[in-house]
From TrEMBL:
<dbReference type="InterPro" id="IPR002136">
    <property type="entry name" value="Ribosomal_uL4"/>
</dbReference>
<dbReference type="InterPro" id="IPR023574">
    <property type="entry name" value="Ribosomal_uL4_dom_sf"/>
</dbReference>
<dbReference type="GO" id="GO:1990904">
    <property type="term" value="C:ribonucleoprotein complex"/>
</dbReference>
<comment type="function">
    <text>One of the primary rRNA binding proteins, this protein initially binds near the 5'-end of the 23S rRNA. It is important during the early stages of 50S assembly. It makes multiple contacts with different domains of the 23S rRNA in the assembled 50S subunit and ribosome.</text>
</comment>
<dbReference type="GO" id="GO:0005840">
    <property type="term" value="C:ribosome"/>
</dbReference>
<dbReference type="GO" id="GO:0003735">
    <property type="term" value="F:structural constituent of ribosome"/>
</dbReference>
<keyword id="KW-0699">rRNA-binding</keyword>
<keyword id="KW-0687">Ribonucleoprotein</keyword>
<protein>
    <recommendedName>
        <fullName>Large ribosomal subunit protein uL4</fullName>
    </recommendedName>
</protein>
<keyword id="KW-0689">Ribosomal protein</keyword>
<comment type="function">
    <text>Forms part of the polypeptide exit tunnel.</text>
</comment>
<feature type="region of interest" description="Disordered">
    <location>
        <begin position="43"/>
        <end position="97"/>
    </location>
</feature>
<comment type="similarity">
    <text>Belongs to the universal ribosomal protein uL4 family.</text>
</comment>
<comment type="subunit">
    <text>Part of the 50S ribosomal subunit.</text>
</comment>
<keyword id="KW-0694">RNA-binding</keyword>
<dbReference type="Pfam" id="PF00573">
    <property type="entry name" value="Ribosomal_L4"/>
</dbReference>
<dbReference type="InterPro" id="IPR013005">
    <property type="entry name" value="Ribosomal_uL4-like"/>
</dbReference>
Length: 206
């Protein structure tokens, strides 16, 4: 699949061939859903915690004598049925992450890239280099190019000036090729990949 290469100034600079095995697949929602769910579950903190009856601070004295009261045989006030007592089987700190095969994660990334290409929201950029880290200058270029919610994927490393200039632009994210992931690609309307990023992704997913 052949597509034009744009420059930051809005012009074109030739074209590039995109690998159909990476950018030309028929996107499958079930694959994308599984990978996004794996990402979000892995990122979930899981720090919620309640106190059990052994951790609550209350009297441990036996409420009434064992026999003769006509009531239940309660021990102490920390039992879950009492106010201020411990919680029974409540949440404790844990990891929400689950396993997903590495090959399946790579397949999900291929389908995410293919989805953007099929929608016509994939842009190939000559490079993402700036001489000066000026947010105002980059913001005007982004506006001229019509990128409202965009993710820029560069090569092995992101140009420091470009990353610094993009930091304060709302709706613009910048990642190196190794940071490319399904969730961030689908979250943004436009996917912008530099030529170096294309080469790095094809080497990573071949």
């Amino acid at each position: 699949m052949k597509t034009d290469v744009l420059t930051l100034d809005g012009g074109t600079n030739g074209s590039v061939d995109l690998n159909d095995e990476i950018f030309g697949l028929e996107p499958r929602a079930d694959i994308l859903h599984r990978v996004v769910r794996w990402q979000r579950n892995k990122a979930q903190a899981g720090t919620h915690k309640v106190k059990t009856r052994s951790e609550t601070s209350y009297s441990t004295k036996k409420i009434v004598r064992q026999k003769g009261s006509g009531g239940a045989r309660h021990g102490d006030r920390n039992a879950p049925i009492f106010r201020k007592g411990g919680v029974y089987k409540g949440p404790t700190p844990r990891s929400h992450a689950h396993e997903l095969p590495k090959k399946f994660r790579a397949l999900g990334l291929r389908h995410a890239l293919s989805a953007k290409a099929k929608e016509g929201n994939l842009v190939v950029l000559e490079n993402a280099d700036l001489a000066d880290a000026k947010t105002k200058a980059l913001a005007s270029k982004v506006k001229e190019l019509g990128w409202k919610r965009a993710l820029v994927i560069d090569g092995a490393a992101v140009n420091e000036n470009f990353a610094q200039a993009a930091r304060n632009i709302d709706g613009l994210d910048v990642l190196p090729s190794m940071g490319a992931n399904v969730y961030d690609i689908l979250k943004r309307d436009t996917l912008v990949i530099t030529k170096a990023g294309i080469e790095a992704l094809e080497a990573r997913l071949k």
